[in-house]
Amino acid sequence: MIKTSLLIMTALTVLISMLLSWRERRMAAARPAPPPVRGRRTPARPGLVARARLGLDRWVTAAAIAAILTIAVLGGLHWLRVIQR
């Protein structure tokens, strides 16, 4: 049962992370462009630490959602088994 929950959690984490990154890209494309800064040709991109932090936040969020879903699914299966007895 532990191997099953770990496998489910890993798969859900990857899928949810992909969905979150897709949503971030989609929301960024829908957002209007900020007005240009005077004296600068292109808007500044976030630095290395800021990009790493965004990626880490996405993976932690995905893992938390996957953990909740795994607990709910396996807990539900357990209670179905208990009720049937």
Number of strands: 0
Task: Report the biggest beta sheet as strand number plus sense, adding barrel if it closes.
Answer: none
From the spread of the alpha carbons, the general shape counts as elongated
Query: Helices and strands: which structural class?
Result: mainly alpha
Q: What count of structural domains?
A: 1
Q: Average the pLDDT over all residues and give the rounded result.
A: 88
Portion in helices = over 70%
Instruction: Name the helix and strand elements from N-terminus to C-terminus, one letter apiece.
Output: HH
* Low-confidence runs of at least 5 consecutive residues: none
CA radius of gyration is 20 Å
Number of helices: 2
Distance between the termini: 19 Å
In short, what is this structure?
With 85 residues, the protein is mostly helical. It has two helices and no strands. The longest helix is centred in the C-terminal third of the chain and has 37 residues, at 48-84.
Descriptive overview:
The protein has 2 helices and no strands. It has helices at 2-30, 48-84. The two termini are 19 Å apart. The mean pLDDT is 88.
Task: Jot down its keywords.
85 residues; mainly alpha
Show the helix and strand layout.
Elements: H1 2-30, H2 48-84
